[in-house]
Amino acid sequence: MVEAVDKRKRRVRHGRVKERARILVVGGGYVGMYTALRLQRRLKRELDRGEVEITVVTPDPYMTYQPFLPEAAAGAISPRHVVVPLRRVLDRCRVVIGEATAVDHAKRTATISTLATEEEGTGGERLTYDELVLAPGSVSRTLPVPGLAEHGIGFKTVEEAIGLRNHVIEQMDIASSTRDPAIRDAALTFVFVGGGFAGVEALGELEDMARYAARYYHNVQPEDMKWILVEASDRILPEVGEEMGRYTVTELRRRNIDVRLRTRLDSCADRVAALSDGARFPTRTVVWTAGVKPHPVLAATDLPRNGRGRLKCTAELTIEGTTHAWAAGDAAAVPDVTAGKPGGECAPNAQHAVRQARVLGDNIVHALRGEPLTTYTHKYVGSVASLGLHKGVAHVYGRKLKGYPAWFMHRAYHLSRVPTFNRKARVLAEWSLAGLFKREIVSLGSLEHPRAEFELAAGGKPSQDPPHNPKGSS
């Protein structure tokens, strides 16, 4: 008796049975989304014939365009327009909302925890694959600073960006209504740790927003607020060059922002930011943007990693010493073949991640078709950074720009890079409207605890403390 052939898993072509290629993409960020997008375009016919299956496992149903997080926090862009819905963009892929908790590449299996895993009580789901793309991205790199876990605020997700915006406006509300000078001073003191893109842009945009919002408070002036940037090294924004970094420090200090170089945050316990230079600032706001580290799932795999915990990769974006395993982006240590010296690696930034994803997608297609692989080569063209409305710095193709031209280039560049025409049009429309109307300075802090008011009305005890300003402010 001839064994039945599962038509979903096998196809008969030219008189022979061919296994269906199952491609598993772990991660829905830059690399995950762009790789899957490239695959579904290049493998359109194979997908139609059922010869290929692409599964994307991601903890969120959207990809966040992180360069727009500071503007989202400042209210210049709607949070919905900073994210790209994966199910709409990857319409030929199977999108699974969950996280990979372990990968056994020797057995070609990945253990997945989904939203239903805990309720089912059956443990993680095991997915089998033929080709693996491991692109879980990175997580915030924290240090054992006392009080950081209890009082620190991250700035890596759209939820954190909007939460920080609500928090800043809420602190202004507290300062406006309190009679206690100590509470007022702590509410109007904002400490940012980390002088990279995330920290500098977030501080610049939020200080600009708060300065504008102060005009609507009868007893809060811009000079009442203290904005402090703490950086452990001797420079900020190293990506834009030393000269532009020095200009940025001068520009921030001109706005009465306290920039402290060669300084660390030693503690933020009891809502007091204690710095390594001896300064102490009572504060209700400590924003931590001091770098990232590889996703913890990499440690739960049998794949080779380097000393920093990133996957060892080849210039073709395969994982060293393995077959049918690929990686790129923050999780991958990709050789920089343009560096001119051995041992150089591509920087883990968005510019490389997007370009690596295209090569990675193409190389998987080449591998499936038995074609030669392509080497990833890309010359770093420069960087741009926004410091608030109409303020910025840029170092692109050897040219150094500052002020309005740099800010305009920042917007133009990222508008061209944000995925999908839909998002481009919406962001451009919001920017255009912002030039005609006043800024939105509404805090919707109650969104963070939407059931608090109903639980109180129903006679229950809120599961989390309700925000200080449950109705928002304007």
UniProtKB/TrEMBL annotation:
Biased composition of type Pro residues is found at 464-474
Region (Disordered) location: 455-474
In the Enzyme Commission scheme, what number(s) does this protein have?
1.6.99.3
**InterPro entries annotated for this entry?**
FAD/NAD-bd_sf, FAD/NAD-binding_dom, NDH-2
Molecular-function GO terms, alphabetical:
NADH dehydrogenase activity
Parts of the chain that traverse the membrane: 21-39
* PANTHER family listed in its UniProt record: NADH DEHYDROGENASE, NADH DEHYDROGENASE-LIKE PROTEIN RV1812C
The UniProt family comment states: Belongs to the NADH dehydrogenase family.
Q: What is this protein called?
A: NADH dehydrogenase
The upper taxonomy is: Bacteria, Bacillati, Actinomycetota, Actinomycetes, Kitasatosporales
